[in-house]
Amino acid sequence: MFTTYVVLIRGAGDLASGVAWRLHRCGFPVVMTEIERPLVVRRTVSFAEAAFAGQATVEGITAQRAADGAQARRLLAAGVIPLLIDPAAACRAELHPAVMVDAIMAKANTGTTLDDAPLVVALGPGFVAGQDCHAVIETNRGHDLGRVIWQGPAEPDSGLPGEVAGRQATRVLRAPVNGHVHGRVPIGSAVGEGQIVAHVDDVPIVAPFSGVLRGIVHPSVLVHTGMKIGDLDARAERRYCFTISEKSLAVAGGVLEAILAWLVATSEWNSPSDSTKRPQPLGERSARP
Predict the structure, then answer these.
(1) Tell me, what's the pLDDT at 114?
(2) Which fold has domain 169-234?
(3) Most buried of the four, 53, 58, 67, 100, by CB within 10 Å?
(4) What is d(CA 277, CA 118) in angstroms, rounded to the nearest whole number?
(5) What residue spans define the domains of the chain?
(6) Do 223 and 229 touch, CB atoms closer than 8 A?
(7) For residue range 201-217, what is the model confidence (pLDDT) as tens digits?
(8) Whether 29 contacts 265, CB under 8 Å
């Protein structure tokens, strides 16, 4: 039904992967791009892991690293999500996506423009709908999570991670020095308060509370002091480490809504071959003043 509408997603971290998973499930052909060594923490639920391992499967859907656009098209035909190492998403010139989603989560616009695709959607702070993109999806936890904003920005970056089970800043593990991360326990492991979960070179990373290690960056990634390198979950539910989060699914729902609303509003549904059409604002940005 949606096979003519290629969706190109910049970034393949956990939020981007939730979007890709949901769109793929709904029948959209999805292509993802990443940097050579993604800085992803929640690797067990991120298609970015294919950049390291060649292939990654999240809840039954597989992504595979592709060498070029031609291989990406073959993978799409086989029902696989292609992952291209293409930080600038230059592949859009060859793939001609109907939709581009900026899911890099850089908290700033790193180069996305309204002209990148007939519909351009961006996740979270750093974008203004109507200026940088056609729609912004709210990523801040709370009442507006997943809301589609057609005019204006998302909520500004608070600088703090979202609260999970009463833990906020302490649930994020950060690099004490520059170097490489050497994990001491696998993702999904139960850890106790004070337990060493990893080292950055020779400096230990100690669990600030008991829980489950939900994610940690790949050992080949060079990290810098203060960088987020791990995620500890006080809920201690191991399966949460291997399934897409409620936040990712909410954001993915927003992206799906934006695409379907655009198809209806622009009559793209009836003429998918006309790539010159542009989406129009479909409503108010949100109830916030």
Answers:
(1) 95
(2) OB fold (Dihydrolipoamide Acetyltransferase, E2P) (2.40.50)
(3) 100
(4) 6
(5) 7-157+246-270, 169-234
(6) yes
(7) 999 999 999 999 999 99
(8) no
**Closest residue by Cα to residue 40 from 17, 63, 9, 64:** 17
* Averaged pLDDT for residues 248-269: 90
The 10s digit of each residue's pLDDT in 58-88 is: 999 999 999 999 999 999 999 999 999 999 9
Q: Which residues pair with 164 in a beta bridge?
A: 167
Comparison of pLDDT for 165 and 95, the residue scoring more: 95
pLDDT at 185 over 70: yes
What are the φ and ψ backbone dihedral angles of 47, each rounded to 5 degrees?
Answer: -70, -15
The alpha carbon dihedral of 180, 191, 60, 272 has a sign of negative
- C-alpha distances in angstroms, 63 versus 7, 102, 110, 111, 180? 14, 18, 24, 25, 26
pLDDT tens digits along 135-167: 999 999 999 999 999 999 999 987 766 666 666
The residue among 250, 270, 24, 35 whose CA lies nearest residue 13 is: 35
Q: Check: CATH 3.40.50 for 7-157+246-270?
A: yes
- Residue 74's CB is within 10 A of a number of other CB atoms, namely 12
